[in-house]
Amino acid sequence: MSISRRHGLLFGLVGLLYLAVVVAILYDSPLVDLDWHLQQLRPYKQWPGALPYLDIWVVAGQRGPTAIAACLWLGWRCYRSHSARPLLVMGTALLLLNLTVGGVKILTGRLGPHYAHYVGSPELFSGGSIFPSGHTANAVVTWGVLAYLAVRWRRTGAALAALTAASIGLTTVYLGTHWISDVFAGWAAGALVLLALPPAEPALAALDRWVLAAWHRDGRFARPAAPATRPYPAAAPRPAWPPRPQPVQARSTTPSRTARLSRSERYSMVSGPSGATARTVRQPRSAASSRARSTGSPG
């Protein structure tokens, strides 16, 4: 993945801020005076009512609980997406965090406010492990990676991650476990880890493919195979049955009543096949026979 110029400038700017904080505490600058001024205020004594709540809230910056909770959630994401990328990104970020922050802690050896020996001293190279703030850097990285991996609401997640990291850093100052310069360095160290993730994406993608190939080769965590479908046998051709004989209806020679018949057709209905009439045609009677029939005498 090619790094944009803006991304490179941002990485360089955050790195310079980190270096400036380190140089400021090395040369006893006014930043060290600010550290002591806030330590002598003892905020946990000025506002003791918030102590029980902030003492619990600071756990959101501890590496153990937050890393376990985040990895459990990302493990579920890996199972659902059939990809190891979420866990690989979180693992890479935590590895970079431990190497960079842990290395600076060992090199500086700074003591915390509760163990300071001399007022106004930066308390460097005294066998401590307080600079930079691990709580703050871990909050930046853990919650920042969750926002980085978010599919939706990424900007909202980034804003919530920034607020969480800011509140965790200020809470450590309130509790007196860190100097304010430790918090500044922790913010910068965590931001550098997050900015190092996009250039590492090609290597993470290759590692993801290798892990998935190994899992599938061993038969573990493989993608669920689609159920095998048996092909349907080809339908056998139906036998050619002979056509069923249809009953022949006798045609009626009698025309429909509604049909209008011609004179020749009406004549054929009352005549036989030889032309003889179907009934006897009466002969016309004479007038004498009609009178004899009416009087009862034979004609």
TrEMBL record:
Keyword set includes Transport: no
Matching entries from InterPro entries are given as: PAP2/HPO (IPR000326), PAP2/HPO_sf (IPR036938)
Q: Which UniProt keywords apply?
A: Membrane, Transmembrane, Transmembrane helix
Residue ranges annotated as compositionally biased, kind Polar residues, are: 252-261
Pfam families for the chain: PAP2
Note down the stretches annotated as region Disordered: 225-299
> Which residues span the membrane?
7-27, 56-75, 87-108, 128-151, 158-180, 186-207
Mark out the compositionally biased spans (Pro residues). Answer: 234-246
Please list the residue ranges that the record marks as compositionally biased, kind Low complexity: 285-299
Q: Which residues form the Phosphatidic acid phosphatase type 2/haloperoxidase domain?
A: 87-198
Superkingdom is: Bacteria
- List the PANTHER family hit by this protein, alphabetically: AT30094P, SPHINGOSINE-1-PHOSPHATE PHOSPHOHYDROLASE
Task: Tell me the protein's name.
Answer: Phosphatidic acid phosphatase type 2/haloperoxidase domain-containing protein
- Source organism of the structure: Kitasatospora setae (strain ATCC 33774 / DSM 43861 / JCM 3304 / KCC A-0304 / NBRC 14216 / KM-6054) (Streptomyces setae)
Upper lineage is: Bacteria, Bacillati, Actinomycetota, Actinomycetes, Kitasatosporales
